[in-house]
């Protein structure tokens, strides 16, 4: 089940009313193909990590209009014959997509949705709602993983996320390389390791910090991470944590860590590490939080801060600073004909027809830096790609291997295979990121990964443009 109840009305109203028109005009069973793609990489990054497919496929398999939905649509004066049709509606379409965790680039189709005109139109916003957000957060998580090395990363974002988006975000964070979440609901739902420490309010509720630490240690002696900055980190929090760590050891237990949540985290982590080591607690970990992101974490590690675990909330789950991935869903084929949307901006003119994407790789298996969007009818090879808008620019794809990225993941409304375990998806993402050369992973001013189109696709678009200009 998705983190929120998804039924047929999880759509923008216009998708439902356009569906009515198709139905009443007898066009609803005509075939259609839509492409999901995005245009701009968030955070001025060099790549996006594809996520959300698992939740999307699950939502599509269960998609139907409940009695309550139908009653509501009746109130909106939708036609009784259409409502009768919607009562037994199930999504029966076919989806092609890369595995979750794939590294993806602008202007390249990521998901190809084929089915009836009505069903492919109806799922637009559902698909965009899930994929855009999950991919945004997975991308942010992967940037954080990149700078954190093998240190532990935990999602702390439930309280700062955009409502129930926190649940999708917790999963997307794992796709991008996070290890755990404080969000118990998401941990249970997706099988993510649950993790947590304690809040300032807990400590404040006792008359003394030491009393609070001791009480927690009594109730969870093997799971103590003491929050040490409520009163004074180095004069009170860390000494009190050491006192209770000693008491725990005397009882055969081990304190797990301390958490720093304010002040100069590098300075405090170094001082706390020295105090813990001198007291005989080299195993007590240092956890930090407080408005962390990839840049703060990079800086802390450059300062040699001895931090073992980073808890990241706001900046992770909101995809800050960009807040959204601009993925769109555009018609490429209907009623057997290739379709396109013209635009004043050449870049926004869509790519018509049923397409495949070829990822090109060098002999070492690294990404070559240029993917090819081709017509599916061309097979699985491209020798030459053209710049998607600039007439004179083209690139020969020499000495490279090519992999078709879009694989059938759903047919007749059912997944073609059981979903991979989340850990497998996360491992796939890391494998693909290792194949992406460093220059595309730079946090600032990354190299531009090229996505070109085949001459045949260029030609098809030209023909359609000429037709509509007439
Ligand atoms: N040594 C450091 N290097 C780089 N960034 C740091 C360092 N220490 C903390 N930060 C980051 O600086 C930002 C602001 O920290 P600042 O010290 O102003 O806040 P604070 O300690 O929460 O303040 P307050 O005590 O009022 O709560 C946070 O994002 C924090 O993670
Ligand atoms: O900064 P973020 O990346 O969003 O990480 C989550 C933050 O949420 C908590 O603070 P909050 O003030 O809500 O509660 P607290 O009193 O328990 O610290 C926690 O202490 C972190 O600072
Ligand atoms: O467990 C924690 O320390 C935690 C959880 C959520 C938000 N901030 C901190």
TrEMBL record:
Keywords, in A-Z order: Glycosyltransferase, Ligase, Phosphoprotein, Pyridine nucleotide biosynthesis, Transferase
GO cellular component, one term: cytosol
Pfam (any one): NAPRTase
Function according to Swiss-Prot or TrEMBL: Catalyzes the first step in the biosynthesis of NAD from nicotinic acid, the ATP-dependent synthesis of beta-nicotinate D-ribonucleotide from nicotinate and 5-phospho-D-ribose 1-phosphate.
Name recorded for this polypeptide: Nicotinate phosphoribosyltransferase
PTM: Transiently phosphorylated on a His residue during the reaction cycle. Phosphorylation strongly increases the affinity for substrates and increases the rate of nicotinate D-ribonucleotide production. Dephosphorylation regenerates the low-affinity form of the enzyme, leading to product release.
The Nicotinate phosphoribosyltransferase C-terminal domain, residue ranges: 355-460
Family: Belongs to the NAPRTase family.
Catalytic activity reported: 5-phospho-alpha-D-ribose 1-diphosphate + nicotinate + ATP + H2O = nicotinate beta-D-ribonucleotide + ADP + phosphate + diphosphate
InterPro entries, per database record: Aldolase_TIM, N/Namide_PRibTrfase, NAPRTase_C, NAPRTase_N, Nic_PRibTrfase-Fam, Nic_PRibTrfase_pncB, Nicotinate_pribotase-like_C
EC number: 6.3.4.21
Alphabetized GO MF terms: nicotinamide phosphoribosyltransferase activity; nicotinate phosphoribosyltransferase activity
